[in-house]
From TrEMBL:
Molecular function terms, GO-annotated: DNA binding; sigma factor activity
Key words, A-Z: Sigma factor, Transcription, Transcription regulation
Pfam families membership: Sigma70_r2, Sigma70_r4_2
Keyword Transcription regulation applies: yes
Domain RNA polymerase sigma factor 70 region 4 type per the UniProt entry, residue ranges: 132-183
Domain RNA polymerase sigma-70 region as annotated: residue spans: 37-104
Protein's UniProt keywords contain Calcium: no
Family (UniProt): Belongs to the sigma-70 factor family. ECF subfamily.
Protein name listed in UniProt: RNA polymerase subunit sigma-24
Length: 189
């Protein structure tokens, strides 16, 4: 008879700290805690920056700038607030500053390119539909495009979008409604 295999218990995963604990740890001098915050939010923040700026390189710079600003101002973070709302707000304002600089220097409307994630060959038709949708979103005015991005692509609630964009709740709802109407019209043509 063969020897019985020793079964080792699965390794115990380190507990996942919530954002508040990571912020406290960062403020206490644990730099790796802030790295964890960056890891959690960098993709979502990048998607917002990319949709807003329409340029991958500028979006990467805006994200880096946003996290740098967040790190430097972490001691001003309000306990109990959502870190995601805070970092989105910082990033969005950074993007707005970049857009204003661009407009000042070029005087033209800015191009937009999202990160297209093409599906497998079997999903070619869906890929075409997704491309049409991306093009329709890209054609929206910036204020509508941003609200659509935060609501549908980032899954943010109206209140959080209002906070990020520093807009009244009613304005966010109106922008979202008008954006959806414009998308319906563009996609039905």
């Amino acid at each position: 008879m063969g020897a019985a295999l020793a079964v080792e218990p699965p390794p115990v995963a380190a507990p996942v700290e919530d954002d508040q604990a990571l912020i406290a740890a960062t403020l206490a001098g644990r730099g790796e805690a802030f790295v964890e915050l960056v890891t959690r939010y960098e993709r979502a923040v990048f998607n917002l920056a990319l949709r807003t700026l329409r340029d991958r390189t500028e979006a990467e710079d805006a994200v880096q700038e946003a996290f740098f600003k967040a790190y430097r101002a972490l001691n001003t973070f309000r306990p109990g607030a959502k870190f995601s709302t805070w970092i989105f707000t910082i990033c969005y304002r950074s993007c707005c500053d970049r857009l204003a600089k661009r407009k000042r220097f070029s005087g033209e409307e800015l191009p937009d390119r999202a990160d297209p994630s093409a599906g497998p060959e079997l999903l070619a038709e869906r890929s075409d539909e997704a491309a049409r949708l991306r093009a329709a979103i890209d054609a929206l005015p910036e204020k509508y495009r941003t609200v659509i991005t935060l609501y549908h692509l980032q899954g943010k609630q109206y209140e959080e979008i209002a906070s990020v964009l520093d807009l009244p709740l009613g304005t966010v709802k109106t922008h979202l409604f008008r954006a959806k109407e414009q998308l319906r019209k563009a996609l039905s043509e």
